[in-house]
C-alpha cells in the first residue's frame, strides 16, 4: 500500500450531528485521505469539510469498488478515479 494513503474512519456506533468527528490522523504533505466507516451522508460531508485544504486528495471507501476519489488538488489523482485498496480492519 502506498504510504501516502491515510485512512480516516468516521463511523463508530451511534452518531448525531452534534457528535464530533474523530481526531484527524497526521496528514503528510501530498497525502491522499480515504474516508471510511458506516455513517450518515451528512457525517461524510463534515469530514470532507474538515479535510479540505489539508489533504492533496480525498477518497471515499466503497467495499464494492475500492476507494473513489471525490476531490483532488493534484495531478496524481483525479475525481472519479477508483483505487484498488481495502482498509486494514473492518469498521
Summarize the structure.
With 91 residues, the chain is α/β, with parallel strands linked by helices.
Can you put this structure into words, describing what you see?
The protein is of the alpha/beta class and 91 residues long. 12% of the residues lie in helices and 27% in strands. It contains one helix and five strands. The protein has one helix at residues 41-51, and strands spanning 5-9, 32-36, 57-62, 66-72, 82-83. The chain has a five-stranded mixed sheet, with helices on one face. Strand 3 and strand 4 form a beta hairpin. The chain is globular, with a radius of gyration of 12 Å. The mean pLDDT is 89.
What percent of the residues sit in helical stretches (DSSP H or I)?
10-25%
- Main pleated sheet: 5 strands, mixed
Q: Work out the radius of gyration.
A: 12 Å
**Distance, first to last CA:** 18 Å
Strand residue percentage: 25-35%
Average residue-wise pLDDT? 89
Q: Number of helical runs?
A: 1
List the helices and strands and how they pair.
Layout: E1 5-9, E2 32-36, H1 41-51, E3 57-62, E4 66-72, E5 82-83
Provide key terms for this protein:
5 strands; 1 helix; alpha/beta; 91 residues
Amino acid at each position: 500500500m502506498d504510504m501516502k494513503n491515510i485512512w480516516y474512519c468516521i463511523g463508530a456506533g451511534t452518531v448525531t450531528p452534534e457528535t464530533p468527528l474523530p481526531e484527524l490522523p497526521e496528514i503528510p504533505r501530498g497525502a491522499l485521505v480515504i474516508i471510511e466507516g458506516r455513517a450518515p451522508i451528512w457525517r461524510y460531508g463534515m469530514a470532507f469539510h474538515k479535510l479540505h485544504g489539508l489533504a492533496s486528495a480525498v477518497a471515499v471507501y466503497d467495499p464494492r469498488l475500492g476507494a473513489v476519489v471525490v476531490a483532488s488538488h493534484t495531478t496524481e489523482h483525479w475525481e472519479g478515479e477508483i483505487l484498488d485498496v481495502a482498509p486494514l480492519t473492518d469498521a
